[in-house]
Structure formats: structure tokens, C-alpha cells
Amino acid sequence: MFSRVLDGVSNLRKKESPLETQLKEATSRENWGVPNTTLQAIAQATSDMENCDFIMNFLWKVLQEKKEKEWRRIVKSLTLIEVILKYGSERAVQDVRREQWRIQQWKEFRFMEEGKDVGSGVRFKASSIIEMLADDELLQEEKDKAQKISEKMTSMGAPGTDTNAGKDGAGPSAFKSPFDKGRRKN
To answer: I want to staple 92 with a disulfide (CB 3.0 to 4.6 A). Which of 24, 50, 88, 177 is the partner?
Structure first.
């Protein structure tokens, strides 16, 4: 009887959305990185107002954690914020500007693990984000670079997307062989 009640309560619990799953993966405690495609998908989800609020509130909660052992989550959250600044909506960028004090506090973070200063990654990310927020020109340059990389990666291999196709005989690949140099000179 009791187990049936527990099962019923578990079923009532709201199912996790794909966005929530991505956010949990992107800010996990695990000792490995997150695919750039996941980070960019989250950043692009900020174009929806409801998703933007959900994403930013999720990140601000993670950055409130004061447990030093959570440094991996902090680095990953700061990395995601950096990606949001480059690929996300203007609304998300404004939210980061408004709440930059939450990032600023991590510029002085110090934590040693197994004799290593693992806090340096947190300090570096926080400083990098604050620097971008302070310089509109730098932020725009970073957005432009990210846009170019994104265009190059999405057009790679897609027919009809390479503007150089036919000029040098090379295909649409962004990666050129050193052996192609001879053919391009002709």
C-alpha cells in the first residue's frame, strides 16, 4: 500500500524538460566538459522569454553555492554564461549585465584540491566575463567571432554553402589539406 502511494507521488512529480536536462548536464559536478553544441543550444534557447528567465535563474542559483567543493559547477556555469554572452539573446546579455555582481564575487575565489589551485579556472572565467561586460566593443568582437565560427561549422559539408567552391577546386570543407596548395596556385 505504502509503495503504491510513493509511486503515485513520484508520477505526479513534473517530468524534466529537455532544457532542464541540458542545464543539469552543462553544470554538473562531473570531471568532464560539456559539448559546445549543448552550450550553444542553451544559449540559443534564451531567445524565448520564458526559457531565458528559467536559464538565468538556474545559473544564478548555482553561482550562489558557497561550497568550495562545487568549483566544477561554478566553472561550468561561468563557461555557460560566457557562451550566452556570445550566442544568446540580448535579453540574456542584459540580465548578465544587471547581475554581474554574482560573477564579480568569483574573481577572488581560491581553492586547492590535491595540491592544485583549482580556483584559478573560476577566477579566470569570472574576470573574462566581467571584462567583456565592461567593454561593449570587445563583447561585439566576441559575438562576431562566435558567429563566424558557427557559420563555418554549420556550412561545412552542406552543398551550395561554400563561397569558394569552384574557384580553387576544393570542396566545401573548412579544413584544407596542405597538399591543396599546389592546386590553388594554378
So the answer is: 88
